[in-house]
Design a protein that fits this description.
binds S-adenosylmethionine, twelve-stranded mixed beta sheet, TIM Barrel, binds iron/sulfur cluster
Length: about 325
């Protein structure tokens, strides 16, 4: 699938729930909590149908996200079904990690069960190594659980484990080195992510925003000049660098400051209530649930809908221009 601007679409990011066991300020502020009615959330069968149709059109990579995807009931069953879809070659999950160490009915960790169900890459969010700051930022005292989750993922032997840290000036600015060290010691791929205006809270202020370039400079001051590694690509928009001396690779995701951010975009997003969204940073989204729940609509109709949305994919996001925060990340699926 190719859009009007030459983006090749091969990646579908699927949110399976708007619910979460944490309350990150930049994603799900307390004042913003109103859950979708369950009947409005796509069933697993509906989600799998969209993915199956997408696979027929060229989608080969799927990342499951939320909310916190591991809070949805029978999620392991869903992953097993996903694995069986032909042409889906790469399955990933984005998680806060707090439920990865939890034991399943079979007595193995959830991380191990995900690995057994064909998940190749796990992205785990961790913005701080300070338990008190973690509790403040996420609204939950789950720091130890997140670390246990990271350990469980390492034990499960995934192909790749990435740590995503959202940059915030007054929150983790002083911890960047510690996060780099943490990732190096555990052989994890760390990426620093710029705060994006996908919320409605006071957290998204100019004052809190820490540009990726500045974070890189802060790190280079201590660790020496980084070497750009443009050949490293992880199916996403991160720019990767090698740290001198250690050979460690780290990434920066500068959605706000990198003017070339959208050039290699290969993604569509499906929200848990069935909106197909051509771009995270644009308010356009198209209601696929209506098509899925209309019994007269065939898979060909679903495919046509899919292609129409690809056709509407913008050249680039609108975060820097007229974007007004209006939809929480937890509702869109990060
Ligand atoms: N619950 C999972 C997690 O936390 O990884 C998956 C969903 S979460 C919405 C996906 C990613 O979006 C996380 O890495 C989170 O840090 C990021 N995120 C949420 N709100 C954000 C914001 N306003 N700016 C930048 N990243 C954000
Ligand atoms: Fe939950 Fe992830 Fe959003 Fe935090 S970033 S509130 S863990 S969905």
């Amino acid at each position: 699938m190719e859009d009007r601007f030459g983006h090749h679409i091969s990646y579908l990011r699927v949110s399976i729930t708007d619910r979460c066991n944490e309350r990150c300020q930049y994603c799900m502020p307390y004042e913003e909590q109103d859950w979708l009615d369950r009947s409005n959330v796509l069933s697993y069968e509906e989600l799998l149908r969209v993915i199956r149709v997408g696979a027929g059109l060229g989608v080969s990579k799927v990342r499951i996200t939320g909310g916190e995807p591991l809070t949805r009931r029978n999620v392991l069953w869903f992953f097993e079904q996903l694995q069986a879809i032909e042409k889906i070659e790469d399955i990933g999950i984005s998680t806060n990690g707090t439920l990865l160490a939890r034991a399943t009915e079979d007595g193995i960790t959830t991380a191990q069960a995900l690995k057994n169900a064909g998940v190749r890459t796990v992205n785990i969010s961790l913005d701080t190594l300070d338990p008190a700051e973690y509790a403040k930022a996420t609204g939950r005292d789950y720091f130890d659980r997140a670390i246990e989750g990271i350990d469980a993922a390492r034990e499960a032997g995934f192909e790749k484990i990435k740590i995503n840290s959202v940059l915030m000036r007054h929150r983790n600015e002083h911890e960047l080195w510690d996060l780099v060290e943490f990732a190096r010691e555990r052989d994890l791929l760390l990426r620093f992510i710029e705060l994006m205006p996908v919320s409605t809270t006071e957290v998204l202020t100019e004052e809190n925003f820490l540009p990726a370039g500045e974070a890189k400079k802060l790190l280079e001051f201590r660790l020496g000049k980084f070497e750009a590694r443009p050949n490293i690509r992880t199916n996403g928009p991160a720019s990767y660098y090698e740290i001198p001396g250690t050979g460690q690779i780290i990434g920066f995701i500068g959605a706000m400051t990198n003017l070339h951010f959208c050039e290699t975009c290969n993604k569509l997003r499906l929200t848990c209530e069935g909106k197909l969204r051509p771009c995270l940073g644009s308010h356009h989204e198209f209601d696929m649930r209506e098509v899925l729940r209309d019994t007269s609509m065939t898979d060909e109709d679903v495919a046509k809908f899919f292609l129409d949305v690809v056709d509407r994919k913008p050249e680039q996001h609108e975060f820097r221009e007229n974007y007004q925060p209006g939809r929480r990340m937890v509702a869109i699926g990060g």
